[in-house]
Amino acid sequence: MPRSAFRGLPPCFVFDMGQGYNIMVQCVTDESARFAARSLGRSLMGDSVLVYGSGRIARAIAAALSRSGCAVTIAARRLDHASACARAVGAAGCFAGEPASVLNDDRARSVTAIVNAAGPYSDTAPPLIGAAVGRGVDYLDAANEVEAFMAAFAAQPAAVAARTRVLPGLGFGVAAAEAVVAAACSQLLEVESVEVMFASSGGPSTTGSRATALRVLSHGAWIIETWRLRRVPVGTSPRDLRAANGSAEPLMPILNGDLLALHRSQRAPSIAVYASGTTHVRRARLALPAVVNILRNSAMRRLLGALSSPRPAGDPSSRTVTAAVTSASGITVHMSHTVPDTSSLVADLIVSALKAIQTGDVAPGTWTPYEALGEQRLRALLGMD
After folding, report:
1. Which of 187, 217, 248, 365 has a C-alpha 20 to 30 A away from that of 48?
2. Which of 66-80, 239-253, 311-325, 359-373 has the largest mean confidence?
3. How high is the pLDDT of residue 97?
4. Per residue in 203-224, is it b (16+ CB within 10 Å) or e — as a string?
5. Can you say whether the dihedral through the CA atoms of 13, 15, 21, 27 is positive or negative?
6. pLDDT of 149-196, one tens digit each?
7. How far apart are CA 44 and CA 70, in angstroms?
8. How far from the centroid of its chain's Cα atoms is residue 265's Cα?
9. What are the C-alpha distances in Å from 88 to residues 60, 77, 83, 84, 119?
């Protein structure tokens, strides 16, 4: 990402990732932090929203938007998938299209927002964000891939000029991490470090999510250490993070969008995000050195993701986030929260964000759930109150 993309923006941190790429994390300002949702009980009657995707998450989002009064159109790469999703949720219409060109279709001419529910978001988010900003419509997704957040941030100057919003991360990973960490940080006067652990149980996995997991394994991870981004190869630096119930889980450090979102909202000097799972960590220690070059091929990752066995599709996906926040004096606060059904959570977050946009509570240039919805509303949606 060229540094020219960051000109004219508020003070920020720019992290050099090598090979001409940088990650820039802008700290939250008092002005952007004041946008909290005021009246989210109103309907979205009259809004026309395009949902891109046809899987479990897309159906949950489309159904929730329809119940809120939106005219929903479904688009996907395959027409048969888009048609099946549209029939299931009672959408107004459907069509097939690629991310970069889907908004050029005549059936998308009247949409005021596009919701991306098609993974891997590292592939779909950048072209859809570009298309949305070019058309002057709002963009929302449930991404946690760092590529989606980098694309969202690079698009913010154009989005501000067009008075549109680019809101990635309206899913469990980013939203739950921001809410739980904010709650833990509120118990300390000064925060020195933040560690976040994610764990899941049950629920279906998708080809996109499995391909994303393989991408994380192949590229290693990064942590923020004393305000600087440092690379930590996955599989060579696993560690244990003790959960609130006293159990310790082996973890792998990962570079996801919540790392950037947390740095933006909490301003902690050191932040690390980990994924849990004994089996995955043990396999990573042994297998990654041999297969890393294979996994770096995006086509191979998609193939392996498609061949992997998904979980049973009927079970809800329960996920837990645990935060360990430490002060400069060494005091650590642990906080954990579990969401029993992440599909419903994503749908609620998307609907609430669109309502907040309608009421003028989301300023162009806002790009995390914490900023868009405010801590109180975010906690309520997650069932933390």
Report:
1. 365
2. 66-80
3. 95
4. bbbbbbbbbbbbbbbbbbbbbb
5. negative
6. 989 989 999 999 999 999 999 999 899 999 999 999 999 989 999 989
7. 5
8. 15
9. 10, 17, 9, 6, 20
Residue type, 69: G
Per-residue tokens: 108: 């998308």
Q: Which two tokens stand for residue 201?
A: 């149980």
DSSP code of residue 112: S
pLDDT for 341 = 87
CB environment 299-316: b (16+ within 10 A), e (fewer): ebbbebbeeeeeeeeeee
Which residue is associated with the tokens 């920020």?
Answer: 12
β-bridge mates for residue 325, sequence order = 194, 333
- Residue keyed to tokens 């929260």: 337
> Which tokens go with 260?
């950037």
Does the pTM surpass 0.85? The reply is no
